[in-house]
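re the bet — no i am not wrong, look at it urself. input seq straight from the record:
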Amino acid sequence: MIQVETRAVDGAQGPPATLVGDPDVVRQWTLRLGLGLLALQGVFLVGMSVVFYRRFTLGIDFGIFSQAWTQIGTGHLDPVSTINGFPYLKSHFELLMWPLALLHLVVHSAIVLLFVQDVALMGTAMVVLLWVTALLRRSGAGTSWTVAVTAGTVALLLIDPIVYATAAEDFHFEPLATWFVVLAAYDLWSGRTARMWVWSSLCLLCGDIGGLYVLGLGLTGIVAARGSRYRSLALFAAGAAWVGIISALGANAGSDISTGYAYLAGRQSLPSGSHGLALVAKGAIGHPYRAWDVLWPRWGTILRYLEAGGGIGVLTPWGFGVPLVALSASGLQASGVFVSIPFQNIVVVPFATFGTAWLVVWIATRWRRRLGVALASIVGIFALVAGGAEAVQQLPTAWTFNASAGLNDARQSAALGRALSATPSDAEVVASVPVIGRFGQRPFLYTLVDAAVHTTAPVPVHAGTVVIVIDGSAAPQLLPPFIATELQNDLVAGGGRVVVDDSGVVAIVWHPAPGTGGLQLP
């Protein structure tokens, strides 16, 4: 038995504790084991991506991003998102897509975007573990607490259902922004200023959401980073300025700010730019009940993100800032879709998980020996129970948050594969929403929905070859079977050729007559 005097998290002296073994050696081995387990999780995520890609279970968002990635990678540096109907850059100002498009020079398949996302998810978990290990070293925690806290952290990271749901939900920049802001937070905590700004800058390149994350990190630093308040204020200002610039440029159309937050200002819509943001802030401060009325019915959904990280980590100095900003942005949207979709709030769990570890270590090293051990144990057990309960509830359906609400079967996937093979690289594609993502590497891409319900204008015709892909079994609510049949008959009557008709999948190759301006859906 070795008597070791522990130090508090922030350098204060703690009580002596009887520990077994060399804490430094234990930290190294537990870190290696934890990183190994998280690497296996990363391999599993890659496997998930391969399955979803091969089963054509990728929807609108993957279509938008893969189209932009392909266009930029082939030299079209200002691509238009034909699904959105405006330049890709105006959606969220995700400048990082341009460096990512360099990968197209090496790998032409858009599956690389899913792999990048998987690396970001795995990398985030690994940084959290490294951060917790550094926390244990700084606090002087001994063997018992090193093993317990490390094991608990790894457990929460491995069973986090938000990670798996995010990997199943197409590709998005939120996981990349999360990775960068967690790296920046680790460096802010460690005092590595130069590297912190590198990660923060990369986070900003992820668009308007990156600006919000950096703003949230600055808020955290102002409260928690002793001796780094000026740096934290600079982070807060940089994040706020970036969001303001993007708004002033009108480059956040994908965030639906003009109508999604207008109710906070007592309006139906908002003017563009920083003036609209100012009206939202003024209305929210002057009439807080408007925000409360929207948030109250959504507390159950919000709590699931908190529980996945242990439930109490967001109440700590290092765990609250970024989650507060992220959950406010999604929770206050007029539409509840934003707070219910996991990838929108993936950033909450890493900070909540670290906050939980921080709280356990803080109690164990600050309080009197027996009381500290008891309270820290209770907090740790509560966190694991909360995270475990959330995992039990959400993991069975974690990979059904995508547009298809499940994988296409093998026959459907084979039929869709034949449809893709019959689609020239320069063709225009009009496809059902749940499977449109795999066709996103075409220059013109449009969704196939019931015009009577969605009041859509005729689909523009830009190419000499138009391929219409109908997967009625995946989303019959978007195109009822009788509408799909009518569309098929009209296209065949107009010279279209059915190239696939199997397992509910119909693909029609149509060569419109010269001068044809659009395809009117039934």
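see?? The chain has 22 helices and eleven strands. told u. also Residues 404 and 415 are 16 Å apart (CA to CA). so pay up
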